[in-house]
Design brief:
Largest sheet: 10 strands, antiparallel
Structural class: mainly beta
Strand order of the largest sheet: 41-42-45-56-47-48-49-50-54-55
Distance between the termini: 51 Å
Helix content: under 10%
Strand content: 35-45%
Radius of gyration: 36 Å
Shape: elongated
Number of strands: 62
Number of helices: 11
């Protein structure tokens, strides 16, 4: 496609009118491209913008760094940005970790109040080593934060030097260039002088802050209980407030998150700033040395604090939980009008704890806005399998930073692990938006260069209600996930109707704020204030309409592909049911092409519907030649966009093999086309639709994939089955060799356990059943049983959710059970059982006497769909149920499948049992629906509906 035609097409895509637009196949194939991100692994990423190089940098634990120009394509910095030492007034780069923190450059300073402060010669690594066994500083350089200090004209790196037993410190290093070398200036705050460690407060700056002490103040003499009250001095966040004051928050679990004012002239703590001693025991909310406590306490989880001013508020980000993939790491957000708090969540709950509470996991006492959580199967980046672009789903996201660019766009930068069984992690970036009530909402997809910002959200309505209407994939980022089992939330299908209703997996209402991109979503028991944005679905430039919102109990994401892109994506990825010049010799599932593609509908038109209908029904009996051409016109529609394509196919006439027998022994056929639902071979046998203990009753439904109607059972737990009850046509029969059951079925979702069909005796509780795993079980309730393909031992995958399959089961007195799906015999992978005290296994299955199964069925009064196993009913659809009083051969089964995939009349003499009772009459004449007498017998009549003896019949 030329650049001009691309521009014209994209211009057309921006139209907001409701006129119908056309997308050609060639345009669809080039509408979007692949732009895969380049990933980096940086733990605890702290982001900063370097004006000189016009790049973003992230600094992480263990001296891992990366840079980017667009927050999408990242480059590792290797080797690591260097440390430096000073020798003779000159900076010498290349210092080791052991050398870098031994000698601070600042030994004294003068405060703004004129005080001269002499600082200790603090060796940060040696301090941590005093309380740690076999200490190595190389693995203890954690979570730096980087900021440019315009007063100092320096890049300032605030780094955690971690040690055991709280013997940690936050130190300052500076550089003239963001790429270093960084030289150690001095400590900012020091911890761990608990009265038990060898670490002495005399070697810190404590006395420079609180005055000379004859001994360790009692409030610090906590021994092993230091962490109940005082902070672990790691995880710094340094920022300027809106008045130009420099602050640092710090802390991890333990006594909570504390806050200090810094001196912009030195980058170190402001020794003129004072903090009252507030509290007692284990609860100090302010301390002269450690500063003001703003979050956490009592060893409640919480670390990696980060504070960013966006809009009207300061937002405090906290990472709760443990950082491993099964640790439950999650980001919680609080806000305040002031940089040092008080910080509260959307419910008004303080970020401070007044006692220990478990604040994450299934039993947590939740607080904070969970801005996002573990999830999978979202868009293309978490598709459930590892690809070159993605992994299986995000887990344990956290230790974030945030930044706002010159265009007013704010971003969330964090590391995430994955549910792939490893502890590998990479960096992700999502844009942040401010909702109408002032909370932060993270964009549903990674940032790929979108230009929208908070100002445009507040002043421009990008989409109308008509354009927003449709089916969305929705993620609810709930609190209380089962992190120990690596739980992820998965998308659900939710429809927003143009008139403001919410239907599907969530119900409620939605509305737009006119003239803005704000949306209110009331669903699932919560009210979400949301913003609507257009995003790319990475790793493609495929556009989606997305929303992200904040409620009181959860946050929510939703997306649907933009109309033209939905068509394009289907055309580029779907397997077409027919191909140009291909041969058709069976039914074709034309309408299945849109399965799994939201907001796309399809219509087909056949040039010769007599032999190949608009629904793809193959009718070789109507063919006048062995091969006949047919044009199938496909019209795909998504919103206001359409794509029309024509497939020219060859329809070939085939016949059912003469050596196959698919008629003899048929004792039941239910096509579910009408009520009452009668057995075509015995009109006295009528199927009943039932709901156990108030459960949903099955319904008759129709779609383009089946001819006529089919029956649909709902999911029902044990004791609440949704089922079909039928007289057993084999009851009392002499089953010389065995029997056969065949039927079409379509599982709504994967269900390995719940019942598809059974023969069940309610009195004896004996049963023979099949489930969605193609698991066949028999139990006589007196000790004899056999399980084939039990779900606890194998997942067969023979029956796929959302796809019709023709299932045949034969039970032979001599050959046992055989399973066929779509005419092909399937393996029975596992066998377990017991008969008359003899254990049955896969190697001894031939020892089981299958006469018992056959005789049980011959004595059973009822047959069921959706009932009769030890579990409940599967949500599934059923059609064209056939029962034979003999065992069909493999050739017969293949031929039966062949017949089931074409227009074929399974009824005796082509006459369906009565479909309705009219007024009583003894008139033997046969009338058509125009009231004309057409004879005295139904035999030989053309297909249609007729009346005889007051009953309606269908002749096929």
């Amino acid at each position: 496609m030329s650049k001009l035609s691309t521009l014209l097409l994209l211009s057309a895509l921006s139209l907001t009118s409701q006129a119908q637009h056309t997308l050609t196949r060639s345009e669809a194939m080039t509408l979007y491209t692949t732009e895969a991100p380049k990933r980096v692994s940086v733990h605890d990423p702290s982001v900063v913008w370097d004006t000189q190089s016009q790049q973003y940098y992230i600094f992480g634990s263990h001296r891992v760094q990366a840079r980017t120009t667009d927050l999408y394509q990242w480059t590792h910095i290797a080797p690591a940005i260097p440390w430096g030492t000073v020798d003779g007034g000159s900076i010498v780069p290349g210092a080791t970790n052991q050398e870098a923190f031994a000698h601070p450059q600042v030994t004294s300073l003068t405060t703004a109040a004129g005080r001269t402060i002499s600082l200790p010669n603090f060796d940060a690594a040696a301090w941590s080593a005093l309380a740690s066994k076999d200490y190595n500083v190389d693995g203890n350089l954690w979570a730096p934060d980087i900021i440019y200090n315009p007063v100092m004209n320096k890049w300032c790196q605030y780094l955690s030097i971690n040690g055991d037993s709280w013997a940690s410190s936050v130190v300052l290093l500076t550089a003239d260039n963001i790429n270093g070398p960084y030289v150690y200036q001095g400590p900012v705050v020091i911890g761990g002088f608990n009265g038990k460690n060898a670490n002495s407060y005399k070697n810190t700056d404590l006395e420079q802050v609180v005055g000379t002490q004859a001994s360790l103040p009692s409030r610090y003499n906590k021994q092993d209980k230091w962490g109940d009250t005082w902070p672990n001095c790691i995880d710094p966040c340094v920022f300027y407030d809106e008045n130009g004051q420099l602050w640092m928050s710090y802390g991890s679990w333990s006594g909570g998150i504390f806050m200090l004012k810094l001196d912009a002239k030195t980058g170190l703590r402001d020794y003129d700033a004072t903090y009252p001693l507030t509290g007692s025991g284990a609860n100090y909310t302010s301390d002269p040395y450690f500063g003001k406590k703003i979050a956490g306490g009592y060893y409640a989880s919480g670390e990696g604090s980060y504070i960013q001013h966006i809009g009207d508020y300061y937002y405090l980000f906290m990472s709760y939980g443990g950082l491993t993939s099964d640790g439950g790491y999650e980001m919680e957000v609080f806000r305040s009008k002031n940089p040092d708090g008080p910080y509260v969540d959307p419910k008004g709950t303080s970020a401070l704890f007044d006692r220990y509470l478990m604040n994450y996991g299934t039993n947590g006492s939740f607080r904070g806005e969970k801005i996002l959580g573990s999830y999978e199967n979202w868009g293309f980046m978490t598709t459930g399998k590892k690809t070159s672009f993605s992994t299986q789903g995000e887990l344990s996201q956290g230790h974030n930073s945030a930044i706002t660019d010159a265009q007013g766009r704010s971003f969330l930068i964090y590391h995430t692990r994955f549910n792939d069984g490893s502890e590998g992690h990479t960096v992700r970036v999502h844009q942040l938006f401010t909702t109408s009530n002032g909370w932060l909402a993270a964009a549903p997809f990674e940032f790929t260069g979108e230009t929208v910002n908070d100002d445009s959200i507040a002043t421009r309505q990008c989409f109308s209600a008509h354009e927003l209407a449709g089916t969305y994939q929705v993620l609810v980022h709930k609190q209380g996930v089962d992190y120990k089992n690596r739980e992820t939330v998965k998308p659900i299908a939710v429809t927003l109707t143009e008139d403001g209703k919410v239907t599907g997996a969530l119900t409620g209402t939605w509305s737009l704020t006119e003239g803005t991109s704000y949306m209110t979503l009331k669903a699932g028991g919560d009210t979400y204030q949301a913003v609507v944005v257009e995003q790319h679905m990475e790793p493609y430039t495929l556009k989606a309409i997305a929303f992200t919102g904040v409620g009181t109990a959860a946050t929510v994401w939703g997306y649907k592909m933009a109309d033209a892109y939905a068509l394009s994506y289907l055309l580029r990825t779907a397997t077409m049911p027919v191909g140009q010049g291909k041969t058709v010799n069976s039914n074709v599932n034309l309408y299945g092409v849109t399965q799994g593609y939201d907001n796309v509908s399809v219509a087909w038109k056949s040039s010769n519907p007599t032999i190949l209908s608009d629904d793809g029904r193959y009718n070789p009996e109507a063919m006048t030649a062995g091969n006949m051409p047919v044009d199938l016109v496909m019209t795909l529609t998504s919103g206001d966009w359409q794509c029309v394509d024509t497939f020219s196919v060859n329809v070939r006439k085939t016949t059912i093999p003469a050596q196959a027998d698919i008629e003899s022994g048929t004792v039941a056929y239910y096509n579910f086309d009408n009520r009452p639902i009668v057995n075509a071979f015995d009109s006295a046998q009528v199927a009943l639709l039932k709901g156990q203990s108030g459960a949903s009753v099955p319904s008759l439904q129709a779609d383009h994939e089946r001819s006529g109607q089919f029956v649909h059972t709902q999911f029902g737990a044990s004791g609440r089955a949704s089922y079909v009850q039928m007289d057993n046509p084999l009851n009392g029969a002499t089953l010389t060799d065995g029997f056969t059951v065949s039927y079409w079925t379509r599982l709504t979702d994967e269900n390995l356990w719940d019942c598809l069909f059974s023969f069940f005796n309610p009195l004896s509780q004996a049963r023979l059943y099949m489930t969605g795993n193609a698991y066949v079980g028999y139990n006589n309730n007196t000790g004899n049983w056999i399980d084939l393909n039990h779900p606890s031992t194998v997942t067969t995958g023979y029956l796929n959710a959302g796809k019709w399959a023709f299932v045949t089961m034969t039970v032979s007195r001599t050959d046992g059970v055989k399973l066929y799906v779509d005419g092909s015999q399937k393996n029975i992978s596992t066998v377990a059982g017991s008969q008359n005290g003899t254990s049955i296994t896969i190697t001894t299955k031939a020892q089981f006497d299958y006469n018992e199964l056959v005789d049980f069925v011959a004595s059973c009064s009822n047959k069921y769909l959706g009932y009769g196993s030890f579990w409940g009913s599967a949500e599934a659809s059923f059609d064209d149920l056939l029962v034979f009083n003999r065992v069909l051969t493999r050739t017969d089964v293949r031929a039966l499948n062949m017949a089931a995939n074409r227009e074929h009349n399974f009824t005796p003499t082509g006459i369906v049992a009565p479909i309705a009772n009219c007024r009583a009459t003894a008139d033997p004449k046969v009338y058509n629906l125009q009231g004309q007498c057409v004879g005295l017998s139904l035999s030989g009549l053309r297909p249609g509906v007729y009346v005889q003896n007051g009953k309606k019949y269908v002749v096929k």
